[in-house]
Design a protein that fits this description.
This protein is mostly beta strands. It contains no helices and 2 strands. It has a domain at 33-57. Strands 1-2 form a two-stranded antiparallel sheet. Strand 1 and strand 2 (49-53) form a beta hairpin.
Length: 57
């Protein structure tokens, strides 16, 4: 199932896939699933960060 994020995404998020692939069936298109174990968010003004880590299984 493909999800279209463009109707709800903020301006500038993502990019038009048609610029790179002809369709979802294009053999050159591959999907990589990432499971984050750590996410760091840095605030632009003061460069303070917050780190989220996944719980141990």
């Amino acid at each position: 199932m493909l999800l279209d994020h463009t109707p709800t995404a903020p301006l500038g998020a993502g990019y038009p896939l048609g610029n790179f692939w002809t369709s979802p069936e294009d053999p050159k298109l591959h999907v990589l699933r990432l499971t984050p174990w750590r996410v760091q968010v840095v605030r632009g003004r003061d460069l303070r960060s917050r780190i989220w880590r996944a719980e141990e299984p």
